[in-house]
Design a protein that fits this description.
The chain has eleven helices and five strands. It is of the alpha/beta class. The termini are far apart.
Length: 222
């Protein structure tokens, strides 16, 4: 009876994974490629430092930028916080030393409000703490956006939601006793927009932007 249950559970897991992969392929081929790429890399280990997030995380060669071979990039363009949760298993199985999380702006583009962003992120952090009690968690705030570029229509008028989301994320960091890294002021101009010298589309960073981010993180990597 137990064997049958385990077999059924295994078949269900395979079916679910296959269905998810097919959905990724249908919705965003890059997402599927990135997930399958991660699956073929050497597994995460206890000495690793994992960067988990969306396109902003995906866009940097973090191990080279930080000069640390233990840094592993697990960012994917377009990901939302629930997407991070859905692909946590291979990371948590390795019990990494540190986990740097940045996500939320894609949730904003999908009309998710600030409080909801906080609730989903808290779910993610609770999961990590339960399964990896020795992993040091660093929650990073969302960066500002700059709609003057007119590139991302779903973010137009959402500047306040980003601010609300960051307040909710900071509250999550306090409740869960994880390190909060407020990136927003490092990238904002006097109007609270992403500095135009750091971006070419109002959302993503140029190389000089990643240098600012790198310097902000260095104290947490010693």
């Amino acid at each position: 009876m137990r064997l049958s249950f385990l077999l059924l559970a295994a078949l269900l897991a395979i079916f679910t994974a296959t269905a998810q992969q097919q959905q990724w392929a249908n919705d965003d081929p890059y997402y599927a490629r990135r997930v399958t790429h991660f699956a073929t890399l050497p597994p995460i280990t206890r000495g690793d430092i994992v960067f988990l997030g969306n396109s902003l995380t995906d866009g940097a060669e973090w191990n080279e930028l930080l000069g640390n071979r233990h840094v592993k990039n697990r960012g994917i363009v377009g990901d939302i916080i629930q997407g991070l949760i859905d692909r946590l298993d291979p990371i948590l199985d390795g019990q990494p030393k540190k986990l740097f999380i940045l996500s939320g702006v894609n949730d904003v583009s999908h009309d998710v409000d600030g409080d909801s962003i906080g609730r989903v992120m808290e779910k993610l952090i609770v999961t990590v703490k339960r399964r990896c009690p020795k992993t040091k968690i660093y929650l990073q705030g969302m960066l500002p956006i700059n709609n003057d570029f007119g590139r991302y229509r779903r973010l137009i008028g959402k500047e306040q939601v980003v601010l609300d989301g960051n307040r909710a994320l900071e509250a999550v960091a306090r409740r869960q006793d994880v390190t909060w890294i407020n990136l927003f002021p490092l990238f904002a101009n006097d109007e609270g927009k992403l500095r135009p010298d750091l971006t070419n589309d109002g959302l993503h960073l140029l190389g000089n932007g990643y240098l600012i981010w790198r310097d902000a993180l260095k104290p947490y990597l010693k």
